[in-house]
Structures are given as structure tokens and as C-alpha cells.
Design goal:
With 165 residues, this protein is α+β, with helices and mostly antiparallel strands. The protein is 52% helix and 13% strand. The chain has two domains: 35 residues, no CATH class; 128 residues, OmpA-like domain (60s Ribosomal Protein L30, Chain: A, 2-Layer Sandwich). The longest helix is centred in the C-terminal third of the chain and has 21 residues. The radius of gyration is 20 Å and the shape is elongated.
Length: 165
Amino acid sequence: MPGKAILIISSLILIVGCANKERRENLGLIDSESFKSRPLEDAAERLGEATLLTSLAQRIQFDGGSAKINSTTQNALDEIAEELVSEIDGYRKVRITGFSDSQGNSRTNKILARTRAENVRQYLIQKGVPAHKLEAIGGGVADTNSRPTASEMAEDRGVDFKIVR
């Protein structure tokens, strides 16, 4: 069983690594006549998109108790907007989930998390992403350990993106 998983992963790496279609055909990886769908390439592409959004989302942070978008967050959102606009037909919707740190009461944190997600949604709409492609929800307090450090709490004050296909 582990050998089969390694073979599949190796094949995925080899196919993705061979970006040139002619080179893939010469290596015998695909036959353009019989290989019409691209499930492994599509999966790798989706993984790349998810990785990009995840790394950009990590740069989206808010000050404690605030839903205001700062300049660092604007830069990350500009990159996300550009990616979403360029791949507009590749997804049905992007779900934006806002989070807060553990400071304050639960009700206030839920409202703050939802407001952060909605502010990010509005910013992306202003940058050209169609409103019907974006959904904002509040995730409440981010899961963290019971005694988070200041830097961990700062990381909790952000948003996550999920591409819905």
C-alpha cells in the first residue's frame, strides 16, 4: 500500500514538473489522443491556488478589537483580488471566514470576526471581484491554546479563504 502511494505522488510530481505538453508526451506520461482530462494536473493547480491564498491570507491581520484594513493587509488583498479576477471562471465562490483572538467576550468576538470578513469582502469587490462570487462569514474566536502569546493572538486576528468549486 505505501508503495502505491509513493508511485502516485511520484507520478504527480513528474507530470506537474513537466509543464511542456510535448515533453510529457515524449516521456510517455500522456497520450494526447486518449488523455482528454487532466485530473492530476487539475489537482496540482488547485493545490497551488490554495497554497497561494493560504500564504497571502497569513499576511492579513487586524489590530486587536479592530476590523479596519491596514496597509499590509491591503497589499495582500490586492494580490488576492488579482488572482481571483484572473481565475474568475475557475471557482463558484470564495468563502471568507473572519476570526478574532480570545480577548473580550464571545458575542463581541463573533461580531468582530464577521465584520472583518465582510470588510475583506467589500475590499475585494472594490478591486473587481464580483460580489456574487464572495461570501463572508464569522468564525468567532480562532482555535488556539489556552494561554496564547501576544504574537499568537495577532495571528488569530485574521481571515481564511476557501475556494468553492
